[in-house]
Input
Amino acid sequence: QTFYVKYGDWFAWLCTVVTIGLLGCFFFPSREMKAKVSLPLDLDSFWDKTNVYNPSLTNKMIAEAEAELRLRLPVELLALLQKQNGGYTTGYVFPTRIKNSWASDHLPFNELSGINLNRDNIMFNFLISDAYRKEFMIPEKLLLLAGDGHYFIALDYRKSSDPTVSWIDFECNEDFQIAASFREFLVGLVKSSEFKYEDEMI
Output
């Protein structure tokens, strides 16, 4: 018997599996590939590299975090965290026309939390959002990205699986949307050193 006659069905099945696998890789790239997106800011100057608090981000860490949180993280956020997994930024503000507990014309963005599967590390780790939620009575479906315990900037999944970005200060009864998406939030950021503060205006 020829090879094809003897193993034809098995060989055809193997070819089908390989073809499906290749097509899957092409049309459904991994989260790591998806995270390599163009960003509306300079990635190389975004992070303060003085101190690194979390291990480098891996696909496994992303998968475990999303499974635990039961949500999908924005690809722009993953792109930032693949450069450095949380820590201090080089200093930004988010301009706003809404007067708030921080200022009349802007919000601070001096740090960004990352992913650390070790819950003992509470520095720059948004997997401890549940602990903050219980302590400060924060609603469900808010992923805390930045803040000092009195205020927070958070990914807001309360209305959709595609999060908006919200400012939260429950001590001052403030809870409002500041950007329709994380990408829009990044677009709006201004370097602290370049922002014209209200008291500097003529």
Summary: Confidence is low (pLDDT under 50) at residues 22-30.
